[in-house]
Amino acid sequence: MKNQGTIRELLAEFIGSMFLLTVVNGVAIMFSSHLDGDSMNVILTSAIAVPAILFVIIELFGPISGAHFNPVVTMVMFFEKQITAIKSIQYILAQLLGGIVGIMVSHLMFYHESGGVLFISEVARPDFNYFSEGIGTFMLVFAVLALTKTKSDKATFVIPLLVGGNILATSSTMFANPQVTLARMFTNSVAGVRPVDGLAFIAMQVIGAILAYIVYKLLFKRRTEDIQGTSLDGSVKKIIH
After folding, report:
1. Are 154 and 107 contacting, i.e. CB atoms less than 8 angstroms apart?
2. What is the pTM of this model?
3. Which of 182, 186, 195 lies closest to 116, judged by CA?
4. Where are the domains of the chain?
5. In CATH, 2-240 is 3.30.870.10
């Protein structure tokens, strides 16, 4: 039964990651090649389509796997002891494979435009795009940790809104996800990223996630201590009176 549960979780991470990349790259192909749009159209439509698919996959797969779809999210959940080391590795492999399959699916949907299934991207995203990825990932991972800690029931809305807003607000257009970055190295669409920049993105994403975890621990450790202190004070006052 335990193995069956793990298989369901991994399948959920795979399918969710596949859906995400199918939409991310499908939008780029649709509005840049198929409809002859400019980069502004691609960014604006991505800021609508990506949050929409995030809402869907979080709702669908959250109860099964926790809806990570992102290796750095899995990494910090391991730090929080929410997931074992072995399962973390399994999750990340499922996410990476799902993302690459999603890119392939998007190419097949628009085969008359793409002309193939997998490519090596030549889209350059250098310099301060790297910094942007660190900032975007910091914001995303901190939000995930905070929402999880507070047991918020609004994560399905908050995470997509954060990503959609940062697609418009960050110079890199908010990858903030190593599996998304890896998959986008294998497309010839405007959504791609050349491998040298993609590897730098991944490095900055990991750094951003670790910094987010450190800040989260500082803030929420203090919050927990305050709550415990308040509770203790209240108990003492009751005893005195």
Report:
1. no
2. 0.90
3. 186
4. 2-240
5. no
